[in-house]
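pinging the channel bc i need a second pair of eyes. not urgent but kinda urgent?? the chain im working w is below, pasted from the shared doc
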Amino acid sequence: MPANLPPQYFEAEKRYREAKDPQQKLKILHEMFAIMPKHKGTDKLQADLKYKISKLKKQIQQKKKIARRGDQYFVEKEGAAQVVLIGSPNAGKSQILASLTNAKAEVAAYPYTTAKPLCGMMPFENIQIQLVDTPPIGAEFMEPWLAGIIRNADLVSLVVDLGSEKMMEETSAVFKKLEEYKIVLELEEGDINPLDGIAHKKTIILANKSDLSLFGTNWEILKRTYQEKLPLFYLSAKEKINLEKLKRFIFDSLKIVRVYTKTPGRKADFEDPVILKAGSTLLEAAKEIHKDFARGLKYARVWGEGVFDGQKVQKDFVLKDGHVVEFHI
């Protein structure tokens, strides 16, 4: 028996995907359950919603317990991806956040200005990427709760001060301090080894303050030391040098793709892309949208790079950034 879900259900489902606050998500899930027709055709969907409601309730309760235990900060992910800015004192993380987003970061010439995480949304074309500014990391101290934020992020941006005479010493101190917390900054993300708990985090190096006199010397030193290990990018957040190119650099480093959906006979929705990891297949895209799509998926028609308009593809077809997909179930 087909589900025959009403349009109001799919409208609520779209709001659920866009919602970021767990309480709001929970409210919408209850709304979806109330709207859904109750018959044999929706038995699996009812069970799926009940599971999501139960899981979300447990997550909300768990966060409350964590807060009571004294873990000071948890940054809920928003937008297409979360990028955490880390670095030594006065590297310019707050200035980068202020220059790329609408967040009102406190920018000052003295160290340790940032005492808690501060978030802002960086617009890139038709999506938003979340940037998280964090307290500085030094040879002697790092906020213990910062390790959890770094482990949770989709990408780590290590901000380096090109104007500092102690640039290499300060940068090395960040690597060493993170290793004490079992975090290794790597070229690619790696699974956490259950035996040692070490997190291998995908990382880029943002060399800030390229407007200062030591830029040329320090940039060459930085390249000699790290260019074969991690991607490098130089900028001046204060003087707004390379900021637009930086947005593209961050997006490319995340290795995500934007896929747009359409229904037969209608135009594609270019305002609400489905965000997937690079290399994702048609079936994985269907699962991201709705489990019922994945269960009943027969094939799809695709428009975009590498295909002719409306090309028929199967479940294992690998999607690329910008592809438009018309699902057939």
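so The two ends are 14 Å apart (CA to CA). and Residues 260 and 324 are 5 Å apart (CA to CA). — does that match what u expected or am i reading it wrong
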